[in-house]
Amino acid sequence: MALPRTRGGAIALAGLILLLASQAAAQNAFTAVSEATNPSLLLFSSALQLSGVSTFFNTTGRNITLFAPSDQALLAALPLLNLNQTQLVTNAVLMAPVLMYHAFVPATSDASFPAGVSYYNALNTDGSISGNQLRVSRTATGGLAISSIGSDASVTRVDLPNSGSTAVHVIDAVLFPFYPSVYAAIARTSALSTLSTLLSSASSLMAKLKETTAVYTVFAPFNAAFTAALAPSGLNMTVAQLAAQPALLQAILSYHVVPGFYNSSSFSTNPVTVTTLTGQQLTLVKDGASLVVKTADGKTSNLLGARDLSCGFTDQGTFRATVHVVDRVLVPPPIASVSEALALRTDVNTLLAAVKAEGSYATAINSTTFTGTLLAPTDSAFAALLAANGSISAAALLANTTALKKILDVHVVTGTPLTVAGLTNGQNISTSGGATITVVKTGNATQLKLRNSVATIVGVEVAIGSSATMIIIDGVLVPSGVSISTVGGDGGAAAATAPSFVLMLWSVMAAALLLAFQRMQ
User: Fold this and answer.
1) From CA 345, how far away is CA 374, in angstroms rounded?
2) In what order do the strands lie in the sheet with 428-430?
3) Looking at the whole model, is its pTM more than 0.85?
4) Per-residue pLDDT tens for 340-389?
5) Taking 80 as the threshold, does the pLDDT of residue 452 lie above it?
6) DSSP 414-481
7) Which of 92, 179, 207, 257 could pair with 184 in a Cys bridge, judged by C-beta atoms 3.0 to 4.6 Å apart?
């Protein structure tokens, strides 16, 4: 039947042409994502194009399932990916493994997922099947929950239209094929549940391991290792009893944490010596087919399996930290005195020189019965003190034993030993010299203030015997009566600045604008 030659007929004809064109358009996973609304998948669509994997999803006939994160999910994931504006737009190819981790074979509609739990192997960037699994669970209410290596998500919309032979479902979180942090690796690994429980009682250490920019290697004893270590033939205590002894707990857990990145390939027949957070050393060596960690007193622990638990995404598409599951709890050799604790470090030489020059604390630091805490400024802290007052040299400071005595007095706390986790915001600490230090806690940072001087605590305390601790600080506390001005520490090693929300939003807008520009070509 011919359409009338009227303006209305022309509009009807145009509408018919558009309808036929849309019906003829290829339907595939990328089409479904690009045309999705409520919720919008614009950012995911942009990411697929910018990363170079859109061609794979824009091919008809694929027999795949794709979990598509909403715009809100991608925004929330950017801090965990540690990607800033430039990295997101210019190095978007780094996102390709993450994006492909959201897909698997075969195409599975909502109705086709079985009750209970099912597992699917995600895809590699070339479309082949990887060894990384996704766990899909049918919830009590009939919904779908997804567990990946490093995150969990819920399906919020199923079976998007225009998907052709594929199945596309919307999810509320990005699925990570790695662990965003060291702590996430521990908490999400069932064989490390005892270690995870103990970390909850070591809050300062746990906070460090939660940082997505932290560079650590952790030798994580599996549950059976803790069972053996806590048995009557070992420490002879329960998990709860160990958790209730903060100094011992910190010493044991910190002894398993090494600053720096040492994956399985770091082990060779040539032993590598590394320094733990306690300041004590471990040796990494390959012995036949075994990868072994050795303590200074000859104890050994073997890595279980060759696979590293990769943590922390970098702007190079690599990882900044790793966790190794080991078969034995490493108990650090006991540190008997403050002087032994100081000798384990290479950054407290000025403090040692000050103690030697002043003289009155020489006996205390070598005593095995000292009860209390030494607040130990680093060499850089003393350098900052001297730099703040150009008229005094290190030699002049060490020669002024009266000033030294007053400075050392405010760095010694007698009585019950302090722990970093036990410090509270606003707490007042009385020092050996009678001065009062105030604790200021801001986020994960803990500072000590005395008059105009400020020092930030670096790391966790070092247990010394059963009655003392040492806490490293990045500034020198200056009491009244000492005419040396100082500037507080900067918190130790600089941490990468986390991208602000505005920056993340701008990076997303930049990606979307780039996509829009490409579509106009």
Assistant:
1) 14
2) 428-430, 436-442, 445-450, 453-456
3) no
4) 889 888 889 999 999 999 999 989 999 999 999 999 999 999 999 888 87
5) yes
6) ESSPP-TTT--TT-EEE-TTS-EEEEEEETTEEEEEETTEEEEB-S-PEEETTTEEEEEESS----TT
7) 179
Q: What are phi and psi of 218, to 5 degrees?
A: -120, 130
Per-residue model confidence (pLDDT) at position 484: 60
**442 Cβ contact partners less than 8 Å away, ≥ 6 residues apart:** none
- Listed in order, strand segments (DSSP E) in 20-178 are 65-69, 103-104, 117-123, 129-138, 144-147, 152-157, 167-171
Other beta carbons within 10 angstroms of residue 255's beta carbon come to 22
Structural domains in the chain? 24-177 (2.30.180.10), 182-326 (2.30.180.10), 338-473 (2.30.180.10)
Widest CA span of the chain, in angstroms? 110
Residues in the chain: 521
Q: Where are the beta strands (DSSP E) in 229-344?
A: 257-259, 272-275, 281-287, 290-295, 300-302, 309-313, 319-326
Going by their DSSP bridges, the two strands 216-221 and 319-326 should be labelled as parallel
| Distance, CA of 283 to CA of 330 (rounded, Å) | 12
Which amino acid is residue 399, in one-letter code? Answer: A
